[in-house]
Specification:
- The radius of gyration is 18 Å and the shape is globular.
- Strands 1-9-10-8-2-7-3-4-5-6 form a ten-stranded mixed sheet, with helices on both faces.
- By secondary structure, it is α/β, with parallel strands linked by helices.
- Helix 4 links the parallel strand 4 and strand 5.
- The chain is built from seven helices and ten strands.
- It has a single domain, classed as Dihydrofolate Reductase, subunit A (3-Layer(aba) Sandwich), CATH 3.40.430.
Length: about 240
């Protein structure tokens, strides 16, 4: 049984309770799409978002132990280290002020001078997860400012990657995409939750979906935990396991 809410009737404490991570290791994906399933406008997700979505986006980041993203998304969206947000500061009590960002990259095609790597604070050094086929000299260059994890030979083994994050104490993983990474995580059976905001917009043909990649052997059933309406936007939270 899912619950529906009007965003205007929810307090910040209500939202915190609705999006609290369950106990134990959890990988939650957070995505946005148009009503016809587009994952981006002009190659970026910002045009699909709204005020309520951005508010919950910040909340999800605050609740997470680590933020996971693919290298393509990091470059396209101009990722920077997560910022301290005054509204949610108390939710980080007992943890670092901001969560680190972990980047999945098979080829290690990241600029060591990019803000996400060079400007990450000591308490939240960026974690770069890559493969052994990348040159050790390149990994050493990145390692001057980031933590480098080798997980796989030609392609990153996502089970090894997620395990490495858990071993660092990051039980609550928030994946922000992109679609190829979400597709691979889902294919590997690693996606536990999906927070999907559906915008009141028809993007038209051509845009990618929130999940791309090779077809999965079988569809993954989801269970709707809640839906929040805000000015035509629908903020949903799904779980792969039935609600308790």
């Amino acid at each position: 049984m899912f619950h529906s809410y009007s965003y205007d009737r929810l307090t910040d404490d209500d939202l915190t309770a609705l999006y609290a991570f369950p106990a134990g290791p959890v990988l939650r994906a957070n995505m946005v799409s148009s009503a016809d399933g587009a994952a981006a406008l002009g190659g970026l997700s910002a045009g699909l978002s709204g005020a309520a979505d951005r508010h919950v986006f910040a909340l999800n980041r605050t609740l997470a132990d680590v933020i996971l993203a693919g290298a393509g998304t990091v470059r396209a969206e101009g990722y920077k280290p997560a910022r301290v947000r005054e509204l949610w500061r108390h939710l980080r009590d007992g943890r670092a002020p901001t969560p680190p960002i972990a980047v999945i990259t098979n080829r290690l095609d990241l600029d060591p001078a990019m803000p996400l790597i060079a400007a990450a604070p000591p308490h939240a050094r960026t974690i770069v997860i890559t493969t052994s086929r990348t040159g050790s000299w390149l990994r050493d260059k990145i390692a001057r400012h980031a933590d480098v994890v080798v997980a796989g030979d030609v392609a990153v083994d996502l089970h090894t990657a997620v395990k490495a994050l858990h071993e660092r104490g990051h039980e609550h993983v928030l994946c922000e995409g992109g679609p190829a990474l979400l597709g691979a995580l889902t294919d590997a059976g690693l996606t536990d939750e999906l927070c999907l905001t559906i915008g009141p917009l028809l993007a038209g043909p051509g845009a990618s979906r929130i999940v791309t990649g090779a077809p999965t052997p079988a569809a993954v059933p989801l269970h709707l935990a809640h839906v929040i309406e805000s000015d035509g936007f629908l903020l949903t939270r799904y779980t792969t396991a039935p609600p308790a």
